[in-house]
Amino acid sequence: MARWPHSEDVLRAMYAGGRGNATARWFARLWAVVHSAGPLPRRWVTLEVVGRRTGRVTRFPLGMADWEGNWYLVSMLGNDCNWVRNVRAAGGLVTLRHGLARARHLVEVPVEERAPILKRYLQKVPGARPHVPVDRNAPMAEFEAIAARHPAFRVEAATTPARTQKVSGT
Questions:
Q1: CA-CA distance, 69 to 111, in Å (whole number)?
Q2: What is the per-residue pLDDT for 168?
Q3: How far is it, in rounded angstroms, from Cα 7 to Cα 28?
């Protein structure tokens, strides 16, 4: 990845312990607005999902990977990042924004099917490269070895609007 605006070491430090520091959160808010507006290529979106604890809609700027005719969201930070936990708690019902808001259902991809999706993700989403411990040009076996640590979700049309979903217990 290019050295501008930050080196890979600085980008990794922004997410030490799998959580964004103040700078990372600032950039996330900025990119969520930019991705929502839709001026960038289709792969850059803002994910909106109901928070598992608060019941409020939270926003995350993400890059998608296209693979075999489908679009996928992949967690560069692994299983324990907030957007993954929120998506799982919401049963996969989300809103993706890229110009327009679209209700979507995210279906988690089984571990044994993730490797080619992870490879494609690293090829197309350069900001994720410092956080995934495999080179984007590595053999498929290296992606298979880390697949369990990086969830991938296939993006599908939703039959129920995501924003009307309630968090159980609230």
A1: 19
A2: 39
A3: 17
Q: Give the pLDDT mean for 98-106.
A: 91
Find tokens 């808010």 and name the residue. 29
How far are the Cα atoms of 136, 158, 166 from residue 90, in angstroms, in the given order? Answer: 31, 13, 8
Give the CA dihedral 113, 118, 124, 128, nearest 10 degrees: 150
CA pair distance 97, 46, nearest whole angstrom:
5
Residue 56 pLDDT exceeds 80: yes
Q: What is the pLDDT at residue 3?
A: 45
Q: What is the pTM of this model?
A: 0.75
Report helix, strand or coil for 113. Answer: helix
Q: Which of 130, 3, 138, 127 is nearest to 65 (CA)?
A: 127
